[in-house]
Amino acid sequence: MRVLGLETSCDDTGAAILDDGRLIAHVVESQDVHVTYGGVVPEYASRAHITLLPRVVQATLEKAGASLDSIDAVAATIGPGLVGSLLVGLEFAKGLAMARGIPFVGVNHVEAHLVSPGLENELPYPFLGMVASGGHTEIYHVDRPGSVRRLGSTRDDAAGEAFDKVGKLLGLPYPGGPHVDRLARLGNPSAIEFPVAKLERGTLDVSMSGLKTAVKLFVEREPKPVPDGRVQDIAASAERAIVAALIERLEEALDRHPSRALAISGGCACNTLLRAEAARIAAKRGIPSLIPSPPLCRDNGAMIGYAGWLALRRGEKTPLTVNAVPNLDSFPSPNPIP
Q1: Which residues contact 20 (CB under 8 A, 6 or more apart)?
Q2: Is omega for the bond preceding 42 within 30 degrees of 0, making it cis?
Q3: pTM above threshold 0.85
Q4: Domain at 125-291: CATH code
Q5: 103-151, pLDDT tens digit by residue?
Q6: Could you state, in order of their start, the residue ranges of all structural domains in the chain?
Q7: What's residue 39's pLDDT?
Q8: Which residue intervals of the chain are DSSP H helices?
Q9: What is the pLDDT of residue 201?
Q10: What is the Cα–Cα distance from 151 to 54, expressed in whole angstroms?
């Protein structure tokens, strides 16, 4: 079965073609307009998707050597995300499914991230998964395809938001996460003791707001401009604190919930230190650490197509009457047709 996957939940426009779950081609276009504002402007994001999506789909078809007539099903992000952005991809997918008379699957964006390591590796069930990005920091136990339990989440800010805030405080371009990662490799992670939030015993939640405030207050006391070496030390120390909070919770989750693999996805999964620490704690327990290659960590159509293909294998599809659900919080996606 050949599936076209579409992703427009935020500010990346993605399309992909998968053949029986195997990735054939994918294309992602980023929206540079948001760099000027230091964050995503929802209205501009949805307008950009309208322009970019047809072009991205066509580029993906050409890359795969395929045509729309060869597509057997279409999957699109239904939520969570920015409602205007979601509607662009969702209505495009529903229109295509209606015109061609093929199945449509509405995909939960977070669930797609969770299973995205399956694009490059076999996913052994049950596995422990973490989605860490600008909008999400959540830990799940995935018993089998379509059976997902959330174990913990952020109490306030997502890990990616914390990375971007650190970048902004240091005067780095948006998004700040990749620049913080690059500079951290040159700095001393022990130079500054930024706090790691200590929550009540037994929780698998995390908190990033205190760390963001601590970095802000520290940078405000530094001479301006902050010397290059000092910027590198601040980046390395802040990165250490963010990753320490995530790894601490993942270790607790692995101790409580037996798993055959540790899977990490989302934009923060590109972070060098997080990837290394995840591999370390997984190896200590004799299980693999499964993290997508960096292009598949960010929002993309490949993970949507893969999650859609898994749903179709379970005999599920979504009615064309479904609407975007910006605060979607259910697994699997709502309103499946058996």
Answers
A1: 1, 309
A2: no
A3: yes
A4: 3.30.420.40
A5: 999 999 999 999 999 999 999 999 999 999 988 999 999 998 888 999 9
A6: 2-114+296-313, 125-291
A7: 75
A8: 42-64, 83-100, 109-115, 159-169, 177-184, 209-221, 228-256, 272-284, 294-297, 301-313
A9: 87
A10: 38
Token representation of residue 213: 């405030």
Average the pLDDT over 61-74 and give the result: 97
Q: In what order do the strands lie in the sheet with 137-144?
A: 147-153, 137-144, 127-132, 262-265, 289-290
- Calculate the alpha carbon distances from 168 to 6, 72, 215, 258, 300 in Å: 30, 44, 11, 39, 25
User: Cα–Cα distance between 270 and 250 in angstroms, integer?
Assistant: 17
CATH of 2-114+296-313, one of 3.10.100.10, 3.20.20.70, 3.30.420.40, 3.40.140.10: 3.30.420.40
Asked whether the domain spanning 125-291 has the same topology as the one spanning 2-114+296-313, the reply is yes
Specify the pLDDT at position 237.
98
Predicted confidence at residue 34, as pLDDT, reads: 65
- Closest of 301, 271, 309, 318 to residue 9, by C-alpha: 301
Whole-angstrom Cα distance, residue 126 to residue 86? 30
